[in-house]
Amino acid sequence: MTEQDRARVPRGEARDRIVAAATELFGRYGYEATTTRQIVEAAQVTKGAMYHWFSSKEELLTSIYRELLAEQTGRLQAISAGPGPADVRLHLAVTDLFAHMDDHAEALTVWARSMHLVAGEHASAVRAERRRYQHLFQDLVEEGQKTGAFRDDVLATVVTNTFLSGIVQIYRWFSPDGPLTRRELGEQMVALFLDGVRSSAE
């Protein structure tokens, strides 16, 4: 593709190409080893298109994760506000979280491996959005504790942070060549988590 052809790529399509190329390259070579030039060439867009959408490689990495986190938060918000008792909605929430993670495994693994390299305003923005997700999750746990569906001898903050911290670490030990698929792993972790929070009176 010539430079002239690259310049003709529609803006929205150019952004999608950049995100897809960056995700693939970050996953293959690592965030630090990947250059903006490699991303531009793989995406077949101009450097101007790259910097139109993203001011830096760091912003590009952060944007990929923030968009996925926004999706997760929106889905959790819809489930939390939906019908049914808290234990049913929490089951839906954690099952949906693993399904979303499975659908976007490459991008989320890239973020988990690279997030320690992000600082400043980008890191602050991610922390703020993660807190929003955590608060929604914790509210659901607290609701279940108040109704007696969940054990109340462990603080909802402990339940929430223990579970979500464990999710973040999956990339460190999970192998696609292992005995479980990501979906099967999700099913086992959901069962383990729900058994751990369920009230003994249930």
UniProtKB/TrEMBL annotation:
Asked if the keyword Disulfide bond belongs to this entry, the reply reads no
Xref: Gene3D superfamilies: Homeodomain-like, Tetracycline Repressor, domain 2
Record-annotated DNA-binding residue ranges: 35-54
Where does the record place the HTH tetR-type domain?
A: 12-72
Q: Which PANTHER family does its entry note?
A: HTH-TYPE TRANSCRIPTIONAL REGULATOR RUTR, HTH-TYPE TRANSCRIPTIONAL REPRESSOR KSTR2
User: What organism does the record attribute this protein to?
Assistant: Catenulispora yoronensis
- Name the Pfam families on file: TetR_C_24, TetR_N
| Key words of the record | DNA-binding, Repressor, Transcription, Transcription regulation
PROSITE patterns recorded: HTH_TETR_2
Q: Which InterPro entries match?
A: Homeodomain-like_sf (IPR009057), HTH-type_TetR-like_transc_reg (IPR050109), HTH_TetR (IPR001647), KstR2_TetR_C (IPR041490), Tet_transcr_reg_TetR-rel_C_sf (IPR036271)
Tell me the protein's name.
Answer: TetR/AcrR family transcriptional regulator
Q: Is-annotated flag, keyword Magnesium?
A: no
